[in-house]
Structures are given as C-alpha cells and as structure tokens.
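Appendix B. One record, verbatim.
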Amino acid sequence: MLDALGLTGAALTPGAQRSWWLREALARDPGQHCPPLARDIKADVVIIGGGFTGLWTAYFLTERNPNLGIAILEQDICGGGPSGRNGGFASGWWDELHGLVTLYGSEAAVRACRAITASIAGISEFCERNGIDTWYRRRGYMYAITATAHEKLCEEMVELAREVGAGDELRELTTAEVKERCDSPAFHGGAFMRDGASIQPARLARGLRRVVLDRGVTIHEGTAVERLDGTTAITPNGSVRASHAVLAVNAWGIGWPQLNRRLVAWSSYIVLTSPAPDRLREIGWTGGELISDFRTSLRYFRTTPDGRIAFGGGGGRARRTVDAMFTSDARAVTETAEGFRLMFPTFADVPIEDAWGGPIDVSPTHLPTFGRVGPTNVYYAAGYTGNGVAPTRVAGEVLADLITGADTDAVRLPMVNARPRAFPPEPFRSWGAAVVRRAMIAKETAEEHGREPGFVVSQLARTPRRMGYLLGPD
C-alpha cells in the first residue's frame, strides 16, 4: 500500500525495525554472539559504546599494544546506534574550513582536513586487508545549490579553500556541470570536493566488530552502563574495573555529566527508494558521487549498488533525552520524503520502501572534539554533528594514542582536548535548540521556494551565531 508520497512497507513504520543497512548486514552475517555482562570483571581499558568510535578505539589500542585487556560495553548491538543508521558518507572536511580556521587558524585547519583525507583512505585499506565488503566507492562529493541564498555560501566555501592553499580539493561547478553529474531541476550550480566515499555503514561496523573480537577484545552487547565510578563502569548485572575508560556514546552523551554541556541531540531521518537503476541513468547519476545541498538542515543523498537512492535530512527534533521520537517520528519521515520528491520529480512513481531515523550529537562548533575529561583517565570523542564516518577513525587513533601515551601527530591535531563554548544548561538547551531548529528549517524552506522568510523566523535562525556558536546561518 502506497501513501500520497509513495511511502510503502517499512517506510510507513519507522522505528518498528532496524535500519535497512543493519538488517542487510545482519542477514549477511549475524556475527559471533556477545552476551550481556553478568559479573564483575577487570580490564585495562573499558569502552562504553560499540559504534564506530568505540570499535576504532579498540582496534587502534590493539595496534599499539596487543596485550591490553579491552572490554566494550554496548547497550544494544554493535552498529545498532548511529553507526548503523547514518548515510554512509565518508567525506572530507574541506567544506568545514570556515569553522576550522575560525577556531584553530589556517595551518591547523589544513592539518585537520588532511587527517580526515587520510582516514577516508584508511577505511578502504582496513576493509581490503580484512575482507570487509562495505560497497566502498570513492567518487567525491558534490554540493548542489537549491536556493539563490546559497550561491554566496558556495562561493565563499570554494574561495576559502583557495586561500589556505587547497584549491585542488574543492572547486566550483557550473549549473551545466552539476546537471551532468545529476540532472535534478532543483540544482543550480554547486561545488565538488575530491574527498568523498560512500560505504554501507552497518557492514563497516559489523566488520570492525569481527576484527576486534578476533584480536581478543571482549564485547558485551545488551549491556547498559549506568554510571562511571572513576574508571569503573557500573551496569545492572556487573562492573568493569579498568585503568582507563572511554565514553564513545554519541548523542547519548547528553545523559552523561562529563559531556552533556558539550552536546545537543536532534534527530535525522533517511528514506530509501526501491531499486531504479534505469531512472538513475536517465538523470546521469551513475558516477556514485555523494551529494548534499547547502541547507543548515542538510539534505544528503547517495546511491546504492542496486540502484536505490538513500535520501536523508537533519530536520528532526531536539530532545532532552534520546527517546522513541528519534526513531519513530512519522512527521520527520514525511518531511524527508517531501524533500526527495522535490529533488527528484522523475522518480514520482518509484516507491519509497524504507525509512529510519536516529539521533546525532551536535556540538557548539559543528565539529567534534576528542580528548581526556579533565585530569582523569576518562577519555571521550563527541560532537560529530552528523558527519562521523571518517572522523571516528581519527578519534579512535587519537584516543588510543592518548591512553598509551604515544607522542604522535594525531594527538597534536587541533580538535584534541579543545574546549569549545558550552551549551546552556537544561531545560534551556533543548527548548532553545527545538525552537531554533524549526526556524532554520522554515527559513530555508521559504528560500528554496523563492519566498522571503519572515522577520521573526530569520532572527531566530541566526540566534546561535549571535550567541557565539558556529551553528546555523550568519
């Protein structure tokens, strides 16, 4: 049964099943059973969270010291959170230069971008070495202008890359060049970044899980951590007493006192079409490029090997806790599907057969930070703001080097132990984020349809920048 937007099947029941990515990966290989923690144990390092950050940290720790005792505690299954739900964009940071230069200066900004470039290549090398088929395809990233208001943003983004000596990484595209790569009537020029690879994210998460298990890492799934007592992780049925602890909890960091002022959690949703390879050929989108627009409430889209389009949007809700609204919001699915239909009218009769959502951990700078919590032996990585596939690998390397005391280029990256401005305390943080987020969406939707946004909406959308946060429009 189709609804008015062509939603059918699992697209009508978001949250009732896992993401399409994870269902596909588990059907292919369910993996070794990792039972919940049921007793008190000891370890050198306890990692809370079995997504990309936790798994990469465990992997690099085994690289640094194969004899370390490492325990991962995951409340669901590895890949059950954002790592198995995201769009699969392993993308560069050259589009983030404005924020990076503002925070750290040009030289440090370029070093950070080069680290992400190396991470994208490193993911490919890791998968090839370990026999993990993640559908890895490195074909670059295209930014498409969908509103006149975005033309200046595109120009400034490309110009800044030239100014820091990275003009070969990010270049402007004419309208004809954009449409040659993907012929959507909504696109009006844009830019192209060399750093961009698509992956099947759940396959990467499950492959990482297999590799670290083979290296002797202990994983306990279905194990929620209630708190840390120093570096001892306390769970309902046991504890892990460790010398070092890692918080790799993504948006769930809003519930941890060590992280909650660093983050806001809001939801992002993806819709997935039925296979339509002939339609992709008709619009010329056969190169495998990642694509997004310039909205603050980003729309991002990519293809799959069997000819589907996965189309995502960050227009969901902000909440004080990570609850069912992050996975079961039918309104957010509708808004995402409307965006897809706007971008791809020639797919009007192609059903949308799946939809899923999840939380993203938004930082005050739109960029993540990695490091140590004060003078303790607790470490963290947080604030990926929806772009975590490549940065989590960097985070894993940084945290492993900090824990083992290695003096490396990774630990000298500018986002290591950085201290961005904190968000306001609750309830003002989530209330404010919810109001401002809806204002941003309303402003950009009006601009996309050629209308002038209302004064109040425009002022609300600009509030974060005026408060000193690197979020939203100027």
